[in-house]
Automatic annotation (TrEMBL), chain A:
<dbReference type="InterPro" id="IPR016208">
    <property type="entry name" value="Ald_Oxase/xanthine_DH-like"/>
</dbReference>
<feature type="region of interest" description="Disordered">
    <location>
        <begin position="1"/>
        <end position="27"/>
    </location>
</feature>
<dbReference type="InterPro" id="IPR008274">
    <property type="entry name" value="AldOxase/xan_DH_MoCoBD1"/>
</dbReference>
<feature type="domain" description="Aldehyde oxidase/xanthine dehydrogenase a/b hammerhead">
    <location>
        <begin position="38"/>
        <end position="144"/>
    </location>
</feature>
<dbReference type="GO" id="GO:0016491">
    <property type="term" value="F:oxidoreductase activity"/>
</dbReference>
<dbReference type="GO" id="GO:0005506">
    <property type="term" value="F:iron ion binding"/>
</dbReference>
<dbReference type="InterPro" id="IPR017609">
    <property type="entry name" value="Xanthine_dehydrogenase_dsu"/>
</dbReference>
<dbReference type="Pfam" id="PF02738">
    <property type="entry name" value="MoCoBD_1"/>
</dbReference>
<protein>
    <submittedName>
        <fullName>Oxidoreductase</fullName>
    </submittedName>
</protein>
TrEMBL record, chain B:
<keyword id="KW-0479">Metal-binding</keyword>
<dbReference type="InterPro" id="IPR036884">
    <property type="entry name" value="2Fe-2S-bd_dom_sf"/>
</dbReference>
<dbReference type="InterPro" id="IPR051452">
    <property type="entry name" value="Diverse_Oxidoreductases"/>
</dbReference>
<dbReference type="Pfam" id="PF01799">
    <property type="entry name" value="Fer2_2"/>
</dbReference>
<dbReference type="InterPro" id="IPR002888">
    <property type="entry name" value="2Fe-2S-bd"/>
</dbReference>
<dbReference type="Pfam" id="PF00111">
    <property type="entry name" value="Fer2"/>
</dbReference>
<dbReference type="GO" id="GO:0051537">
    <property type="term" value="F:2 iron, 2 sulfur cluster binding"/>
</dbReference>
<keyword id="KW-0411">Iron-sulfur</keyword>
<dbReference type="InterPro" id="IPR036010">
    <property type="entry name" value="2Fe-2S_ferredoxin-like_sf"/>
</dbReference>
Length: 798, 213
């Protein structure tokens, strides 16, 4: 029956025919849409293999403890259990990590956070595996905790990683500080002496979770050559493989990864979760092993957004010119490094926001602690800073008696500005224009719930159908914010992507096969790859090959980089394919028409070779015959350089993206309930390759920022660093009732350095929606609100 | 224990079901119907929404035994369900009409190499063989096509549950207000879209279905 279903799936897709529709700039529909709406799309948790086992992970109940002993005998004795593995059973390398290999595959003699993996089990039923794990006896001895900067750097503080020898250790001011990045420019002391207005405040950002819906899951299948095939939901197949192979004791070519359906990522799938565990169990038992986290485990299975404490001081002159900014950003990286160093680099270099400030004194650090490990999440270090600098911009404007939007516009950067890192902003930076756009949008009607003299519609009020108010104490507020995000990997990282294109004639019709290792995590990369290939090759039928490690790396689906990078690689490879088409055409038909001698004048369209005058001089079917063209090429963006470790100066980022928000909220001041009435966005995307997807990304990113503003936080108990709310009952993400209308204005100001002039889209909207919502709540209530998420007790003073 | 359930109009039986297994587990792991998703398995996200004797429920909160002898509709059966409904409601759906926008789409091969299957049945099996449909492409339910056309699908993990819930709403309320849509879908979490395009999709499905009447 399943075979029947899968057999029917491609049929549903191939009914699309040869017309060259769906080129760049069009709202082409998702190629995987039909599979996803019929339930046929195979997500990583849907995979099945004959004779497969289920894996389960035993995790630490303590945030910091020594492991005295582990006894697995009772677990192994349970019928249906095939393997139980601890640190002692690991075949080779025992640690992995994205930047620093500091994370144990399984804890050895010490656990450093609540939920750290201690042992793994494979059994013939998921419940058997769970019960077996519960029978593993682990003897712990709790150790003193490191939970914040004070406990991390106190004299005699326990060291999370004593004797660390990573490349950041030498210049980290303390072994419990993963990385430190200052940014120094101008003369802050002199500027402070000239300032008419000085505003200094502390801010705090809670620990947000990516909360993708598709749980961490995958299927590892042992192979006859002694290797392993892993079907997995991830963001970067090759970096997973490069971490896995040493841990499994296998050469890289014996660890083959294929992307299976990914149910969202948002940064949480950058680090390994169950990959190594499933492969180890598969190699140990000789059977396919599937691991699927439940929601509770998922909250322990991936890194979160760094919670942050920020201190900002802004100085301005009476005429509304920003004179200086001094700030300190402390990010809690938790027990392992993950991508903390890069998050620090982003937070530091983007800490001032999209404003021109000549005098800057910034310090950003990330701590090691016994809190849950933190790493990548949409916005990556820029989110925390944006919440603070935008609150500051409102506060300074208020001190100056200026309109907050006008104050921002006076100081807004534009093309040609210099970043605090010294980097020239050499492409459009329409910050003032984006603010103008959101401000100019019509406002939603006031008090819509009491319209037309009828009964009050409580559904539109804070608290909704719980009928908590009929509008008596509801006040409205409006807030604005804007942010700046880098696109792509920064600080000198060799960031590249690879595409392989095969062009051939099938059934008399040219068909292009696009093969990349790009992780489609929902963002729509598969759609734009087809659009790009169709545009460049003039071919109607495009087939997207499954992403796997049999082609070169595509880099990570993160940092808003995939349309730029893998989209760029697809275009770059298509150009090589086109050159080869023209070369073969010239060889065979060059005598037939003089235009063959001028390949620069020729393009491919509708399966034909066409001159710039529109004359058809050949067709692909005739040129290719039965000989395919099959080429693989790498694509790189322009090089960047590391930030100077003392001054933070350097050409660190590839590209910047900008988004502005206007939030309208209504607050029930008696109960502390907030209803976001509207969240309008304006974003410059350079070139909207797929306008429908672009708007979807902006709305989705805005909603995650809204979540951080009013509800989302992983609560870690202060006494024990234990996670208190690992469930969708207690970790709240916005529902359709919490999410307002979201009008979106899209600007397309080309970046001449980028493919098609495009600008990465995914992250920027997550930055400014949080401060815009909080600014609106401040405007409604008059409260200072220096912490997100804003909770009812912050609004009622209880 | 043995459980007999009619799923999408076909009788199924599953043997050796543990008392603690949910309807969701039995559908996904024993009957080979993984369309209903396992995002939270505690009734909070709605990704596993199915209809049990017509009523939308979270399949993760229904013990498999509770479904004994009852009728379940999952996302896999939504198109058939809509088609049957439309034959009872004269001319309610125009087959092929909403599908007109599906040209020029690239083909994606799902990541299913040999021997790896999506939700192959374990011990459960249909009592009757499935009628063969060689080369036939089943038209989607209006709400399914509208989700594609409106851009309401990103990662798609929430989509099956949302579709079942939205289809049930449209069955009850063919011309829902925005407030009706928000209320009906408030039990279905989506982390990608921000819901705006999901609202668009339900409005679109309602408009298309209404126009055809």
């Amino acid at each position: 029956m399943a075979a029947d279903r899968t057999a029917s799936a491609p049929a549903a897709l191939t009914q699309a025919t040869g017309a060259t529709r769906g080129t760049i700039g069009e709202s082409t529909l998702r190629p995987d849409g039909t599979l996803k709406v019929t339930g046929e799309f195979a997500y990583s948790s849907d995979l099945w293999h004959e004779d497969m086992l289920w894996g389960f992970t035993l995790r630490s109940p303590h945030a910091h403890a020594a492991i005295r002993s582990i006894d697995t005998a009772a677990a192994l004795a349970l019928p249906g259990v095939y393997a139980v593995m601890t640190h002692d059973d690991l075949p080779a390398e025992t640690h992995y990590g994205l930047e620093i290999r500091d994370q144990p595959v399984l804890a050895k003699d010490r656990v450093r956070y609540h939920g750290e993996p201690v042992a793994i089990v494979a059994a013939d039923h998921p419940e058997t595996a769970r019960r077996a794990a519960a029978r593993i006896a682990v003897e712990y001895e709790e150790l003193p905790l490191v939970v914040d900067e004070a406990t991390a750097t106190a004299p005699g503080a326990p060291l999370l990683h004593p004797g660390r020898r990573d490349h950041h250790a030498a210049h980290a001011p303390h072994p419990n500080i993963v990385h430190r990045q200052p940014v120094l420019r101008g003369d802050v002391a002199a500027a402070r002496a000239r300032a008419d207005v000085v505003v200094r405040r502390d801010y705090e950002v809670g620990m947000q979770d990516q909360a993708f819906l598709g749980p961490e899951s995958g299927l590892a299948v042992p192979a006859e050559d002694g290797g392993v095939d892993l079907y997995i939901a991830t963001q970067w197949l090759h970096v997973d493989r490069d971490q896995l192979a040493p841990v499994l004791g296998l050469p890289a070519d014996k660890v083959r990864l294929t992307l299976s359906g990914v149910g969202g990522a948002f940064g949480a799938r950058e680090d390994l979760s169950m990959q190594a565990h499933a492969c180890l169990l598969a190699l140990r038992t000789g059977k396919p092993v599937k691991i699927v986290y439940n929601r509770y485990e998922s909250f322990f299975g991936h890194v979160h957004r760094h919670p942050a404490k920020l201190t900002y001081e802004h100085g301005a002159s009476r005429d509304g010119t920003l004179l200086y900014v001094q700030c300190r950003i402390v990010l809690d990286g938790g027990a392992y490094a993950s991508s903390s160093p890069a998050v620090v680099g982003n937070a530091a270099s983007l800490s001032i926001g999209p404003y021109v400030v000549e005098n800057v004194d910034v310090e950003a650090i990330a701590l090691y602690s016994n809190n849950p490990p933190c790493g990548a999440m949409r916005g990556f270090g820029a989110v925390q800073a944006c919440f603070a600098y935008e609150a500051q911009m409102d506060a300074v404007a208020a001190e100056l008696g200026l309109d907050p939007v006008e104050f921002r516009q006076r100081n807004a950067m534009s093309q040609g500005a210099t970043m605090p890192t010294g980097q020239l902003v050499d492409s459009p930076a329409p910050v003032a224009e984006l603010l103008r756009r959101v401000k100019a949008l019509p406002m939603p009607p006031e008090r819509a719930w009491e319209a037309a003299g009828g009964p009050v519609d409580v559904r539109a009020l804070p608290g909704g159908l719980s009928n908590t108010t009929h509008g008596e104490a509801v006040v409205r507020g409006v807030g604005y914010a804007v942010g700046i995000k880098n696109v792509g990997f920064s600080e000198g990282f060799d960031d590249y992507s690879t595409a392989r294109i095969r062009l051939e004639v099938i059934g008399g019709e040219p068909v292009a096969l696009v093969h990349t290792a790009m992780a489609e995590v929902g963002q729509g990369g598969v759609t734009v790859h087809a659009q790009i290939a169709r545009t460049e090759l003039g071919v109607g039928r495009i087939t997207i090959h499954p992403a796997d490690t049999r082609v070169g790396s595509a880099g990570s689906t993160s940092a808003s980089r995939q349309t730029y990078m893998t989209g760029g690689a697809v275009r770059h490879t298509c150009e090589a394919v086109r050159e080869e088409v023209l070369r073969r055409g010239r060889e065979r038909f060059g005598a037939s028409h003089p235009a063959w001698a001028e390949p620069a004048r020729l393009r491919l369209a509708d399966g034909k070779v066409v001159t710039d005058g529109g004359e058809v001089i050949g067709d692909l079917a005739g040129i290719l015959g039965d000989e395919a063209i099959d080429l693989e090429r790498e694509f790189r963006h322009r090089p960047t350089e590391p930030f100077d470790l003392r001054t933070g100066q350097g050409f660190g980022h590839v590209q910047y993206s900008f988004c502005a928000h206007r939030a309208v909220v209504e607050v029930d001041t008696e109960l502390g309930l907030v209803k976001v009435v509207e969240l309008a966005a304006a974003q410059d995307v350079g070139k909207a390759i797929n306008p429908l997807s672009v708007v979807g990304q902006i709305q989705g990113g805005s909603t995650q920022g809204l979540g951080l503003a009013v509800m989302e936080e992983i609560v870690v108990s202060a006494d024990g660093a234990r996670v208190r709310n690992p469930s969708f009952t207690d970790y709240l993400i916005p529902t359709i009732l919490d999410t307002p209308a979201m009008p979106v204005e899209v600007l397309e100001l080309a970046d001449d350095n980028a493919p098609y002039g495009l600008r990465g889209v995914g992250e920027a909207p997550t930055l400014s929606s949080t401060p815009a919502v909080v600014a609106a709540i401040r405007a409604a209530t008059g409260l200072p609100l220096k912490r997100v998420p804003v909770r009812p007790e912050h609004l009622t003073g209880t | 224990m043995r459980v007999n359930i009619t799923v999408n109009g076909r009788p199924y039986e599953a043997d050796d079901v543990w008392e603690g297994e949910s309807l969701l587990y039995v559908l996904r792991e024993r009957m080979g119907l993984p369309g209903s998703k396992n995002a939270c398995e505690q009734g909070e996200c709605g990704s596993c929404t199915v209809r049990l004797d017509g009523v939308p429920v979270c399949a993760c909160l229904v013990a498999a035994g509770q479904a004994e002898g009852r009728e379940v509709v999952t996302v896999e059966g939504l198109a058939d369900h809509a088609r049957q409904r439309s034959t009872h409601t004269a001319g309610a759906v125009r087959p092929g009409g909403p599908g007109a926008g599906r040209t020029g789409e690239p083909e994606v091969r799902p990541a299913e190499p040999e021997a790896i299957h999506s939700g192959e049945p374990g011990t459960g099996h249909p009592v009757e063989p499935e009628p063969s449909r060689p080369g036939q492409v089943a038209p989607l339910a209006p709400v399914q096509q509208a989700f594609i056309d409106a851009g309401a699908v990103q990662c798609g993990f929430c989509t099956p549950g949302l579709l079942v819930a939205a289809d049930e709403l449209l069955e009850r309320t063919p011309d829902p207000s925005d407030a009706d849509i928000r209320e009906a879908l408030s039990g279905n979490l989506c982390r990608c879209t921000g819901y705006e395009k999901i609202l668009d999709a339900v409005r679109l499905a309602a408009a298309r279905t209404g126009k055809a009447v």
